[in-house]
Structure formats: C-alpha cells, structure tokens
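[agent] plan:
  1. take the single chain provided in the ticket
  2. run structure prediction with default settings
  3. attach structure tokens to the ticket
  4. add a short note for the reviewer (M.T.)
[agent] executing step 1
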Amino acid sequence: MRRIQNLMEQWLFIGPDNRQEQVNLPHTWNAKDGQDGGNDYYRGTCHYEKTFEKPEFDPETEEVYLEFLGVNASSDVTVNGKELAHHDGGYSTFRVNITEVLEDQNKLEVTVDNSVNGKVYPQKADFTFYGGIYRDVRFLIVSKEHFDLDYLGSNGIKITPEVKENEANVHIETFTNTEEAQVNVQIKDQDGKVVVEGNGCDVNLNIQNPIRWHGRKNPYLYTAVATLTVNGEVKDEITNRFGIRTFSVDPKKGFFLNGEHYPLHGVSRHQDFKALGNAISTKNHDEDMDMICELGANTIRLAHYQHDQYFYDLCDERGMVVWAEIPYISEHMPGGRENTISQMRELIVQNYNHPSIVVWGVSNEITISTKDKKDMLDNHHVLNDLCHKMDPTRLTTLACYAMCGPFNRSAHITDLVGWNLYLGWYVPGFFLNDLFLRFFHLVFPNRPIGYSEYGAEGMPNLHSRRPRRGDHTEEYQARYHEYMLRCFERHPFMWSTYVWNMFDFAADARNQGGEPGMNHKGLVTFDRKTKKDSFFLYKAYWSDEPFVHLCGSRRSDRSEDTTTIKVYTNQPVVSLYNNGELIEQKSGNHIFTFQLPMEKENKIEAVAGSVKDAMVLHHTEKENPDYKLKKEAKKSENWV
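[agent] step 2 finished; step 3 output follows
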C-alpha cells in the first residue's frame, strides 16, 4: 500500500555567492562557520535542486507526496517551475502533494532561508540556527483514498488512552480524505498479538489489566494498526505505537507516574554535532540516547525546538519522560505571533501519540529582551489555551531566567514553571540556589517549580588545584554540580531538574574557555568523545550500573606534595591503591576523597566491589601551564 522512497542523494546546492556543489542530505551550510565563533555564520537564502524520474505509481488510483522532516527555517518548494508550498518553521514535518505536476523527468527546487527576520522563531538565542535541508526528504506514494496527510504534518491518527483502575479506554480517532472509507483498528501488544479491535473512524477500545508505560522501569508500548477499506478493498494502513500511563505533579512532592512517586532528574539536549551541525544521522541519535541512559537520567528537555521524530521514538522506547517545546525564545517579536501558534500546533499534532511527552513548553527566557510586555503576555495566554484545547491530557510549562523574578506575571501562566538559574556560575554564591527555591516555595506553595536549566562551563583541558568560578576548569564544573545535586536533595518538592547541557553545543556568538563558537556546559564534549568528570558524578547519583571513576585523570601533572584524589561511584565502599599498595578504604555515598602523598610517579587504582578505575599522576616542580586559561583567551564574550 504505502510506499516510501528516499530522496537523499545527488542534490545540487547553490550557496552564498552562487557557489555550487553536489551534496547528499542531510545537509547544512553552517556546519563549519556556525561553530567557529565570531557570530558571523551565513544567514541568508540558499537553493537546493534535484532532478528525478517520475516515481512508479498508478495515476488513476494513487497520489505522490513529498515529505520534508526538517528544513530550517523558511522554505519554498517548486516542482517543474510550479510553486507548491511555503513553510515557516525549521523543525517540523511538512508535506506537498505533487501528483498533478509530475512529468517523466522532473526538477525539484527548494529555496531555504535562515535570514534574520521578525516573524519566524528563533531569531535570538544561545545556539546556532543552522540553515539547510538537515533531515530526510522522501516520496510517500499512497492510494487516492488514504489517511489524511494534509493537516499540519499529522500521520492521520490520534490516540488517547484513559486509565481507570484495572482497565484502559483507548480513544482512537483516524482522519481520512474520503467519506466512503471504512476503518478497522487493532491494538497489538509488544509481541504482535491482537489485544482488541473495533471499526470506525472514532472508536473506543477497552483493554483489561493494561501494562503501563512506566518510564525507565518499563517503557511498554502497544501498537495501533488502522486499516482503511473502500468497497471491500484495502486502500491504506498506518501503524502507531503508544503507551498507557497516568502522571501528575504535586507542588509539595513532585512528579508522579502511574500513581508512583517518580522524581524527574535529567538533562537538556541540543541536536547538533561537531562538523555536522544539525545534519545528523540516526547513528548520532542512538549514540546520544545511549549516553543519556548510561548517565541514569529519566527525563530529557528537548530544547529549544521540535526534535526529530526518530529521537521522540527513542524516548518512548527507552522510557524517557520528555519536556517538548517550541523556539519561542529570548525575545518576543510582535510579528511572530502567528509563527508561535503554527509551530505549537505542529508540535502537538505531530507528537500527540508519544507517551514519553508529558509537558508542552510554550517559551524559554522570553523576558530577556522583550519590549512589548502586554503583547508578550497575551501571546503566552493564547499558546497556553491552545495547548489545553488541543491536548487536555498534558500540562504546560515555560522556562524563566534569572532576571525574571518570582512575581513576574509570565511565570504564572502555565500549569508548571521552570527556572534557568546559573547561581554559582554567572554570579557568585552556590547558596543562592537554596534561598531562591525556599523563597519561591514559601510564597507560592501550590505552584510546582523545577530547574529547567542549570550548569557551568567545563573544559577537559583546563584544570586547577583550587578551582574558581569563571576559570572554565573541569574541576570547578564538577564542584558546581556536586553542590546542585545536594541542593536538589534538600528540596524534594521540585517537579523536575535538567542539567544544561548533556553535550557541548555550537553557539557562534560565544567566545569562552579558549574555544570560540561553543557553549561548554555539556557533561560530554561536542564530538561525544570525552565524558567530563561531571558526567560520572551524575552517573554515581542516578545509575544502578556498578562503576567507579577517578576524577582528575587529565590533570596528570601535579606540583603539590600531597594531592586530593576524588572518586565518584555508586558503590558503598572504595579502596584506593597507589603503586600497588593500599592507601585507604572508605565507606560513603557517591563522592569519596582521599589524601595521597605524592611519589615521583603514581599509578593509582580505585576499587569498588567488582569495578575499578586507574590513572597515572606525575609529581612535578611546577603546575603544568597548559592547564590554565591563556591570557588572550580570558576576554569572555557571552552570546548576549
């Protein structure tokens, strides 16, 4: 029935100054200049062209759609000289019916624009807005009678489970392009066995004793199969996985999943990669998810835009609770209201069936440079009401920033609220985190609050015996996160916490830490090759997989006569050895420190149960000068 044909190879790219080159998709023209600093990456209009033979289909009974999974930011699609579609929004799926314009030989032209403008978000933010066709493009060949493909990138099926005690009522709505259709719906379990079925475009199917989708503990997925029949002939079929779960948020106790207290602790994620930008592969997505799972996170904030459907699927499969949001960020644009609405509608319609998603995020740090506050607040009310109308099953949230105080009206529109706070990094004073949380909870005890962002820059090549705020050392980043984890333990009412960020990412306007164009707050480097010490701190707190990690292995030259050895582990007892001799054994939780008299060469081993880690330290006369941020690099340029 449905046939998919990818269109990923042999495109002609016409870039700045009309330079031309052959490219394969996914592709961005900012893979280099969007990551090297200077805030001068190319933002403008480029063109993609491809010639193709008419795909095999029966024009009497079938239609052909072009499907684009991600083109940033605005795009115009032309086939054989006929303009067929315009789309504003760089992170969502859109489709074009090209049946009527197809010839034996065809020319496809896609004009893509990531220029500065006042109507399409994002325009101002701490990340690079890569231009290009950076996700898949493909043909969808379908019967003329088919499940709807023309509504906001939807796949034509909407699944709403409602759980009551030991049964689930699954409301399944399907949308077709013909009134003559008969629809059969089956629900299958993970083994492919039909659990229940029914007929109609709007059906309620009852499942007795359903298996719950329960996050990392049991991400169980059912599959709905909808078959469209006309006059006894099957014309179309779609499948969609879904999960059955309940969730709630208590302002005093936090998040609950299926009635069970389920504290949300996780990370934020940007989708770009070194030398690739946003033009990443499924292998890159898999690698990211594997590391997030290794860390022990149970929730992800997918910032600051709609991510690839493949990654939302991974979140369903791996049990990640998700905060999904649109790029309404940093600055309210009076001319961008319709774009916030269209991006939110696409986000909800295209992702409604993912059990991993529990909240829709309407904005991020929007008060940072907003002038028309009245219009901004009204825009937020419109978006919040839209979310509740389109999806009454989920909650809404937004992320405020430090200069947006607890009494700011924008912080009290959505169901939940998060704060992006870097107290202890951009301003001194770790203790300010405790003061803020206590004050907010005291004044607004019934308002659920979380940390949507927190973090500190950390360079794996920069080190200090006495780390200080702003030195960009790996040691200070770890010290910061040690405090934050203890802080969150003191405030169990928080509904969620999200490290900013899981991975370093490109922000071309930045120049910090001696490497321009980067935000280095990640727990893992941009190329995903180096897990910083802070990564293992979170693994010690969150993961059940036995491990032990010696911190400071990259500070292998040390001038002090007695050095501090720090160990992160999720095991209760650690033994430290140097040059084969036991130095000390300690019991504790997560973080262990030892004082080690230095020898000329120190072969250190940490043993915790069945796991161990090793490193070599050298006693030197002076501290290695390469560990310190160079004088010429100390002039720090933030994105704002």
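[agent] step 4 note for reviewer: The first strand starts at residue 3 and ends at 6.
[agent] ticket updated
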